[in-house]
Amino acid sequence: MKVALVTGAFQGIGYATCELLLEQGYAIVMADVQDCTEKATAFTQAGHKAISVTVNLADSSCFSKVSSVIESEFGHLDALINNAAILKDFGIGPIEMQEEMLREVLEINQIGPFLLTQTLIPLLKKSSAPRIVNLSTQVAQLEQLSDMNSPLKDDICAAYQMSKVGVNANTVLFAKALEEFNGKVNSCCPGWVETDMNLDDLPDYGDSQDRPKTVKEGADTSVWLATLDDNGPTAGFFTDRQRINW
User: Fold this and answer.
1) Closest CA to 3 of 93, 87, 69
2) Quick check: helix, strand or coil at residue 53?
3) Which H or E element spans position 40?
4) Rounded distance, CA 226 to CA 2, Å?
5) Which class for 137: exposed (0-12), middle (13-18), buried (19 or more C-beta within 10 A)?
6) Which residue of 42, 46, 93, 186 sits 20 to 30 Å from the alpha carbon of 36, by its own alpha carbon?
7) How far apart are the first and last CA of the chain?
8) How much helix, strand and coil, in percent to the nearest 5, is found in the chain?
9) How does pLDDT run across 21-79, given as a tens digit for each residue?
10) Nearest alpha-carbon partner for 232 in 122, 131, 157, 141
11) Does the predicted model carry a pTM greater than 0.90?
12) Which residues contact 52 (CB under 8 A, 6 or more apart)?
């Protein structure tokens, strides 16, 4: 049985990602700072295989325990979906950004996922086809950020954007590191999705959506990338299963 760990699994896109992977026969490790025990139990009672682990991305000391639980329960890991993130700085630019907020956002959104991935690499290497998916955003595309005439020019969330540029760096670095092990590592933007992170004044991502996606629609590209076959892409950035520029 293939095994996937999803961070931010308690709700929203992360929870929907778990549902879609379970439908494909995966065992799921639901990882979140919130307790997913009841939700994992409900999945198990419905005939699936799911367990929960507590993960605080701001505290790397918990990562080795997560690895130990997966090693004990499954012995390997096939897919890691780094979905969890925070957005708390919308409208705050680089001049106004306070150090405490900057460090918190970078720690949870980019540094924590990097260190968690690093910790889980030995388990991913035990898979015949390891897959890593990093949730990013089109508002962190360097192509957009460097365009002084971009329609997203005034949509600023400096710490969040910096952290997601870092997430994309995580992607290409780990893609190179896992290439010899048949690994595929990609970033994706879910687009405009109706979640608790959503705000009325969020940028439109330049994708011309006329409505927010459902959480399952938002999770689709993540699941596609997590289940790629040997011919699938690596070191890429995708939305709606289509490659986009960095």
Assistant:
1) 69
2) strand
3) helix 37-45
4) 11
5) buried
6) 186
7) 34
8) 45, 15, 40
9) 999 999 999 999 999 999 999 999 999 999 999 999 999 999 999 999 999 999 999 99
10) 131
11) yes
12) 9, 29, 30, 31, 32, 35, 36, 37, 39, 40
> What does the block give as tokens for 14?
């992360």
Task: Identify how many contiguous H helices and E strands the chain contains and give both numbers.
Answer: 8, 8
Q: Which amino acid is at 98?
A: Q
Helix (H) or strand (E) holding 145: helix 142-145
pLDDT digit string, tens, across residues 1-11: 999 999 999 99
- Provide the token pair at 91: 């409208």
Residue closest to 214 by CA, chosen among 7, 29, 13: 13
Which amino acid type is present at position 193? V
Rounded Cα distance, 135 and 167, in Å: 8
Alpha-carbon distance of 185 to 133, in angstroms, equals 6
Selection from 17, 10, 105, 96 nearest residue 55 by Cα:
10
Q: What's the confidence (pLDDT) of residue 195?
A: 66
Residue in this structure with the two tokens 């004044």, named with its chain if needed: 201
pLDDT tens, residue by residue, 140-150:
999 988 999 88
